[in-house]
Amino acid sequence: MSLFKDIVTLWNSDDLLSQAWDESYEMMVLSNEIFTKAIKYLRKNETIETVKALKKRDQEINLFQQEVRRKVVTHYAVSQKIEDLPNGLVLLNMVVDVERVGDYTKNILDLSLYYPETIRSEEFSNDLAEVEKEVSSRFEKTIQAINSQDSDVAKSLMSSYKDVVSITDQIVNGCISGEISYGNESKTTSLALYARYLKRVAAHLKNISTILVNPFEAVGYKK
Predict the structure, then answer these.
(1) Measured between alpha carbons, how far is 102 from 77 in angstroms, rounded to an integer?
(2) What digits encode the pLDDT tens for the residues 130-142?
(3) Has this prediction a pTM greater than 0.85?
(4) How much is the pLDDT for 82?
(5) CA 155, 145, 214 angle in degrees (round to 5)?
(6) CATH number, position 51
């Protein structure tokens, strides 16, 4: 049985865990904002300064994670309620995944910085365009599911993750084997990297969705 409903009840109280919950949710919303802008920057020639400024916003995500850690640890140090320790551990797991999404978003921004042209997924590959659209949608649905405690949406996101894996693996493996090639090493490499980054973002979003469904020991894994 998932601990999430118990955790939400705990977080609804006016204490450090409640504050940590609010900040973890804000962290997810910020991460989605940066991710969405990163994709837009791939599609048009933004200035180097603009792209680098967005990359620096990842520091805000890191600060959120540190603050959540501090509040969770302080809560248990003060309350000494060891029996509900899994509640805080679930929250700490969640912010780790959000932080990793931020790292892969920075990788996407690096493509924007170093690939000499724009990257419009549909011009590279219909499959890549499909994955890009799907991951963007999954990000919004994950945030909505967490906010509304919707386990049905979480289950759907978990079960459909394998489709993202299948498509991105085909793209990456095709680029490695030479089956997929544009006669341009830079373009082929960028396609493979972008597909891999999107897969990893989707993976961490899937991990976050598992907290709505799985017991603590299975958070981040298939039920």
Answers:
(1) 29
(2) 999 999 999 999 9
(3) yes
(4) 66
(5) 45
(6) 1.20.58.220
